[in-house]
Write a structure and sequence with these properties.
heterodimer, A: 156 residues, alpha+beta, Alpha-Beta Plaits, 5-stranded antiparallel beta sheet, 4 helices, B: alpha/beta, TIM Barrel, two-stranded parallel sheet, 18% strand
């Protein structure tokens, strides 16, 4: 009887110890895997190079006439909206630049950094008055090169 | 098909032209009583109902939006199921948002409206967006449905759908959910609404 109790106690101790050792080795393995993953994962530590994107937009004059909407007025309206929304730092990073604007048709090309795409769309929607004319700015297409954007403008 | 379910201004040909240029096929406005088509854009009535006047508008045709101004508006919300197409929470008059209120919003099951112009106005005036972020968090956890609309009062305030998508993503919503809130949910609501 005593012998059986002794065997049960010993087996219980052995199983507890093996459980403890197994848990410890699992933790160590998990840590080792995380370290290796961290070494291999270089993407999160790399800074993405911002590429230029070219947005073809169209201006619709709601009040007033379209020829009164001039390129410098659009630039200043965009700058003030950008500074209001994202501050001086945001403006200097995004740097939305109008590289082409056809005053007769109200179609133009805006250049910006690719990782601020959504911010630029939001910015355009908040530009509601240009040179005293109430306008709606409609984004038409986004391209990766200036040539493709010009092609789109010619076709539009 | 794109739908703007919250144009609050007067409907005329200029509005239809701007809506068409922005790509909208359906626009809902509270200023019209009957569905009509102007310049290829379908205008449908938007019926804003309060809890007390729900019975009066039960047979009305259009998108029914429940205006929630207090916690009591969502009391015994099970009675509202199927009677309203969506809900709009007026956070300014609501006061504090309790857990009980959130439970009621989840239980209601109707999509919650997020107005672009209202959010932008709050951003520009430097007021907190806590409650909108709460709604978007609940949406991201798939507890509620959310849809975006312009809330414009004149044609120059109308916004392109990409702008609404951008606002939602800038506020931290995943892109797939933002797309659904702008494109899919409003169209589903129009299809389900009686008009």
């Amino acid at each position: 009887m005593l012998l059986i109790e002794l065997v049960v106690a010993i087996s219980l101790v052995v199983s507890l110890v093996s459980l403890y050792l197994g848990f410890g080795s699992w933790l160590k393995t998990r840590k080792a895997v995380a370290v290796i993953k961290g070494i291999l994962n270089t993407r999160s530590t790399k800074m993405v190079r911002p590429r230029r994107r070219y947005l073809v937009f169209e201006i619709i004059a709601v009040s007033g006439s379209l020829p009164h909407v001039r390129k410098p007025d659009i630039e200043s309206a965009l700058e003030s909206s950008c500074r209001l929304l994202y501050g001086v730092l945001g403006y200097s990073i995004i740097r939305p630049t109008i590289i082409y604007y056809d005053e007769s048709r109200g179609v133009g090309i805006l250049s910006f950094k690719h990782n601020w795409r959504n911010h630029v769309f939001l910015l355009l929607s908040l530009t509601r008055e240009v040179g005293g004319v109430k306008v709606v700015v409609v984004p038409r297409a986004t391209t990766g090169t200036r040539r493709k954007a010009m092609d789109y403008v010619r076709r539009a | 098909m794109l739908a703007d379910l919250c144009y609050l201004g007067r409907v005329d040909e200029l509005v239809a032209r701007v809506a068409r240029k922005l790509g909208y096929k359906v626009v809902a406005s509270p200023k019209i009583g009957k569905a009509s088509t102007v310049e290829g854009v379908r205008f449908i009535p938007r019926i804003e109902v309060r809890r007390g006047s729900l019975q009066e508008h039960e047979s009305g045709e259009g998108v029914k939006v429940l205006i929630v101004e207090s916690k009591e508006d969502l009391k015994s919300y099970t009675r509202l199921l199927g009677k309203v197409d969506s809900a709009r929470v007026v956070f300014d008059s609501l006061g504090d948002v309790s857990k009980d209120f959130i439970r009621r919003i989840i239980g209601l099951g109707a999509p919650i409206e997020v107005e672009f112009s209202e959010v932008v106005e709050k951003v520009q005036s430097g007021r907190p967006l806590d409650y909108y972020l709460l709604l978007l968090r609940l949406y991201a956890r798939r507890k509620i449905k959310v849809y975006a609309c312009s809330g414009a009062t004149n044609p120059s305030d109308m916004v392109h759908p990409t702008a609404m998508f951008s606002l939602l993503t800038v506020l931290g919503l995943p892109e797939e959910l933002a797309l659904k809130a702008v494109l899919k949910t409003p169209v589903e609501m129009v299809a389900n609404a009686t008009h």
